[in-house]
Amino acid sequence: MLRFLILCVVSACAPRLQPGFEIEGGDFTDSDVYSVIDDAGVDTTQVQAEDKVKWVFYDFESNKEVTEEDPAWDLAFQRFNIRMNGGAGGPGSVAVATFKDVGFDEVSEAPSVEQFQQDAPNPKGGAPGYVFQRGDGWYYYDLGKHVLTSRKWVYALRSAEGTLYKMQILNYYDSLGSSGYPAFKWVKLQ
Known about the structure:
This protein is mainly β. About 5% of the residues lie in helices and about 35% in strands.
């Protein structure tokens, strides 16, 4: 009876794995970032950002991982945190606009300048107010299952170089269900 009780308690506390996400044809052999482009020219990128301290810096223009010292970085990932190279998040001019009730294919042009936002300083100190975490944030957290699920909002992003992209965060888990592997699809806006 005691053994059964211990198994029940342990299994109730064990993390529940989210169904995995895998980008065909990529791996993290040489970098914490890999991307695959589909036939329509849409890029799907996954970031290995499971470290609780280290940030992984990404540049859309070169489609690769870069260092924080590289002025071209656009977004940085640390687990579920997403910071931008603009405002309080970094010295660049990166900004995003959020589209909550539209599909990826429906966003075909840049929003008005007033819709773009940057990371904001935290008046209490500490981490900035990241745009991707403001309000409801880019994910829904299920308290019962302890998993993050992307809201699949679409973001228009103005890069450090001034190029416009649209992106959508797809998942937060790798193919084995491990957390800290955000995946997103993106393409340049015309």
